[in-house]
Amino acid sequence: MTDHASSARGFDSLAVHAGQEFDPTTGAVIPPVHFSSTYAQDGIGGLRGGYEYGRSGNPTRTALERQIAAIEGGVHGLSFASGLAAEDALLRAALQPGDEVLLGNDVYGGTYRLIARILGPWGVGLRVVDMSDLAQVEAALAERPAKIVWVETPSNPLLRVTDIAGLARLGHEAGAIVVVDNTFASPALQQPLPLGADVVVHSTTKYLGGHSDVIGGALVIADDALAEKARFLQFAAGAVSGPLDAWLTTRGIKTLAVRMQRHCENAQQIAEVLEGHNKVARVYYPGLPSHPGHELAARQMSAFGGIVTLDLGDGASARRFAESTRLFTLAESLGGVESLVNYPDEMTHASVRGTELAVPESVVRLSVGIESVDDLVADLEQALAAL
Ligand SMILES: *Cc1c(COP(=O)(O)O)cnc(C)c1O
Fold first, then answer.
1. Which is the catalytic residue, given 39, 66, 88, 108?
2. Could you tell me if the CB of 384 is within 6 A of ligand 1?
3. According to the 3-state scheme, what is the secondary structure of 50-77?
4. Residue in 206, 231, 259, 365 annotated catalytic
């Protein structure tokens, strides 16, 4: 048996091979997509591969779960129907009424909405701090413990960078579970578990899928007992990923490393060109030395990511800019091969308008794709010229 996926192998080898052994019956190099909802039993309880019913387990989903766990440097991978379904399963597995979550102050709006509006009425508390300032985190935890500390780094859309190892230390001293939403960086650039985090969350809809053609989410959990609870919730509540979605995500992950390399190169060049442009008040990109998290990002990440956020001075200019690009498509989401422009205040972050997570109305977020960078720069320059 060939061993393509030994955990001693490098990231790119694991992304291509982990969980992806060829089909033993036919030799098909790409494992088949298993659509079957149920599995024949050799006598009652006589399962051939441990599979009995598609909600509790499906071989295509297992292949994805092993692949994601391997690329995050973790053991337990769990795949879900969406990023928020993954978050919901984790939160309900870890929390009880009366528990609190300490949340970063520019996390994904849907995460805030899930905790505040769905779990809140069931008795889960929520406090918000700037996670990039560990002194604020320490003070908040000293005031009152939290069951979960939840961070996104780089954050959305202002790309604040948090010291994951430092946060894990503070969280653990206070008895909390430290969760990192690693959607923006992807494991190709940053691996929170080896830095001390307990759980990694993904919207695989974004960079892992990578082609804007599938909705999905995942958890990678270090602790056996918490993983078992989350897996029970995955089975008992049933927000699993379907076989075709799991397979598309698996295919996306195989090219993650090379896609991220181009996303990062293009984003860096765009950030450098636009910093200092007379119509741009500020460029947020961790790869710029002017970014407050630049040095930390350089230590913690292998490159700076594919998201660039621009402050265009006022809301009217930001809106006009977002509606003036031609190669950048005006759309929500991020992480696909094609470039997108988003106006957070009325699009991705509309659900946190007027809350402590509100995004300045002068800001637009670019998800920089893998197109020819000269075309991308020219498009942004023509949109700026229209202001
Ligand atoms: C998109 C996103 C989510 C939610 O994932 P869905 O797949 O849309 O449910 C969570 N966190 C981050 C950082 C995201 O960008």
1. 108
2. no
3. CCCECCCCCHHHHHHHHHHHHHCCCCEE
4. 206
Told to judge if 282 belongs to the known catalytic residues of this protein, a careful annotator would answer: no
pLDDT digits 0-9 by tens, 287-312: 999 999 999 999 999 999 999 999 99
CATH of the domain at 110: 3.40.640.10
Total domains in the chain come to 2
Residues 63 and 195 in one domain: yes
Query: Which of 55, 229, 262, 319 is labelled catalytic?
Result: 55
Q: Which of 254, 276, 311 is the last residue of a domain?
A: 254
Q: How confident is the model at residue 1 (pLDDT cuts 50, 70, 90)?
A: very low
For residues 376-382, give the mean pLDDT.
Answer: 98
Model pTM greater than 0.90?
A: yes
CA-nearest residue for atom 4, ligand 1, is 83
Catalytic site includes residue 251:
no
Closest CA to 63 of 335, 227, 249: 249
328: containing domain: 257-385
Same domain, 17 and 104: yes
Mutation probe of ligand 1 site: the residue of 111, 206, 215, 249 with most atoms within 8 A of C-beta: 206
Q: How far is CA 27 from the centre of its chain?
A: 34
Q: Which residues of 73-102 are buried (b: 16+ CB within 10 A; e: fewer)?
A: bbbbbbbbbbbbbbbbbbbbbbbeeebbbb
Query: Which CATH number do you get for residue 322?
Result: 3.90.1150.10
